[in-house]
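Re: the request from the purification team.
They wanted to know what the chain is likely to look like in 3D before they choose a buffer screen. I agreed to run a prediction and write the result into the notebook, where they can find it.
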Amino acid sequence: MKEKGFTLLEMLLVLMVLMAIIAITIPGYQAMSVKKEEQRFFEILQQDVYYAQSQSLDLKQVVKIAFRETKRSYDIYMDTHIPGQTRKIPDSVTLKKTSNLTEIKFNASGSVVQSGTFRFGTSSGEKTMVVHLGGGRVVFSE
């Protein structure tokens, strides 16, 4: 009589193939996860810049976004002293020393007080955020 089933050797071979496939896909997933986290960070940062500008117009007061590299975060200030919102900067994103700004400040009319460039180091290279004087236009680029 013939028994149905798999031998131990066949089971081990299948497990080895599955382990090899998993070992190959995990690093790719981790890299993709880091890139998605960075993308999400820059999307939220862009929304926060637009929010700060609109709040300065609505409230008729100075609103600023200040980067705190030591805390790995940035704060949105609705008045000059108390942060209204704090956002964490991902571990894979750094504010480079070549940036000539550490904050974006909008006056009561929604205009930028000081122009300059933020330079961020990411896992896929450098991203910049250029702040223009006048209407408060902020441009993100890779």
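For the purification team: The chain has a mean pLDDT of 89.
Please add any questions underneath this entry.
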